[in-house]
Amino acid sequence: MGLTLTEKIIKDHLVVGEMVKGTEIGIRIDQTLTQDSTGTMAYMQLEAMEVPRVKTKRSLAYIDHNMLQEGPENMDDHIYIQTVAKKHGVYFSKPGNGICHQVEIERFGVPGQTLLGSDSHTPTGGGIGMLAIGAGGLDVAVAMAGGEYYITMPEVVKVELTGKLRKGVSSKDIILEVLRQCTVKGGINKVFEYAGDGVKTLTVPERATVTNMGAELGATTSVFPSDDMTKAFLEAQGRGEDFTALSADSDAVYDQVVKVDLSTLEPLTACPHSPDKVVKVSEIEGLKVNQVAIGSCTNSSWLDLMKVAAILKGQTVAENVQLVIAPGSKQVLTMLAENGALADLLNAGARILECGCGPCIGMGQAPCTDGVSLRTFNRNFKGRSGTVSADVYLLSPETAAISAVKGVLTNPLGKVELPDIEMPKDFLINDNAVVPPAPEGEKVEVIKGPNIKPFPLAKPLADTVEGKALIVVEDNITTDHIMPSNAKLLPYRSNIPYLADYCLAPCDPEFPQRAKDNHGGFIIGGQNYGQGSSREHAALAPVYLGIKGVITKSFARIHKNNLINNGILPMVFENEADYDKISLGDDLMIDNAREQVNTLKIALKNKTKNEEYPLLIEVSERQKEMLQSGGLINLMRSKN
Ligand code: F3S
């Protein structure tokens, strides 16, 4: 039986486990990337592992997320990342060089390699044939230190593309169609592998739009074959030597098949407030628009912006619309400047932002109150734009551009005369905004501004674990409750002591001080504790506050992993009714904790009430070892 492309890449990188679907496997990571909002913590974690040089083939540190510099904190973070990267063997992409995923595709992606990035849209690299996966900062730090990355051996979905897109229909419409069919929950523990005749009609940037937004399916990743189109792109980027042809075997067996006929596809849009609320643009055409935003790691390539420039050339942005455009990289912006397309954008009335994430992460350009914003981005969750009352629609650059001119949501099909835009034979290559690592890193001084505080580490698991029930919270507590992230707190992402004062404060403002006064203790939670984003700070702040265990009715998966990675015991009540028996301030104790963790069953003593409750700790052998060591970093240190 033949292999899918996904299985081939996994087989080449398999270090732990066997390729049995649903089981845990460990894969070797060739390349890593970080961005600034998760990077500071990842590099502090790398430093804590005491690994002098990264062991990957190549690691990159990007600055693209938060480039607003209203105080010194952000630039301090940039300088820390730059110096720590130089010391430890990591390339540093300066602010302004571009959005991590766009630059990776242009300058660093290699077909057939694995890429782990501390950003959920790392799967963009699948556009060039990489197995590219988004993860938490600590996982990326471990990969930089030479450790494997663990995933559930995925199911593979074949997305069969047939036909050819019509002018005015774009690769954004392909992924919106896949989202329409499969929904935001449709990709869990799956890789979406693109195949069929339609693949060869799509350029690498078009493929990258599809793999980028595959993240919205909840998929492990998405991947395209590496073929003549990939070869031409790499050669035009001066990297022909990085090309390898890659595809699935003709008799590969897939777990699921999704079909998209490119020739009948129509322009689509994801309506507020979810990327899978997809309808045809023609169904809601005429909607009055306040803002159009073009860019983000989904649609900011040279090809995207050339199409936009072609539509805007000689036109004027409608009176009621503000049009903002953030090119994806310095390469893109420079090429537009040199070929005159930038002038077409400016003449039409577009505002050009710097090459970065910007409005995508709510850093500037928030829409007006109750506004309608059309965006070529990948997410439209309520409030992400910075305006809670705004309605954000996700759509293609073609739809965005024509709508900016008309002032209302407009179907580009049949309404735009797009010229044939040939991909460049030679992209403009100038990597002078990428600072290479120092050959002798030990001589580099890592500069840590006052906002960059030491990273908290748990202690190895003690035989007796005791402390008070410091907080009792209800069901569905999110990582936003555990560690709020807002514009006020974001500049403090490298300062866990500062952030810890806001830990669980939305549930109980007294909790952080209570935890400090008692030198730590236990958190008691209900169902689905820790749902929401993968924010690692929601585990790090509790470590700083001395939390030894979290006892709940159930955990959200990623938060549970983050607790384990950071040496906090995640335990669930065997009898849910016992949740009601624990009161705030009760003295709790676990005897022979090290031994009990091994048995996956724990007896929790409530000394205040003279009761005992059976708990379960559902962890793998690998995770048991982490908990015994006081977290993954301590474990790595002991192994190094
Ligand atoms: Fe940046 Fe938005 Fe992509 S924050 S990495 S442009 S999803």
Automatic annotation (TrEMBL):
Keywords: Iron, Iron-sulfur, Lyase, Metal-binding. The keyword Iron applies. GO terms for molecular function: aconitate hydratase activity. SUPFAM superfamilies: Aconitase iron-sulfur domain (SSF53732), LeuD/IlvD-like (SSF52016). Monomer. It comes from the Bacteria. It holds the Pfam family Aconitase. Residues 522-575 form the Aconitase A/isopropylmalate dehydratase small subunit swivel domain. Belongs to the aconitase/IPM isomerase family. Its cofactor is [4Fe-4S] cluster. The lineage of its organism: Bacteria, Bacillati, Bacillota, Clostridia, Eubacteriales. This is Aconitate hydratase.
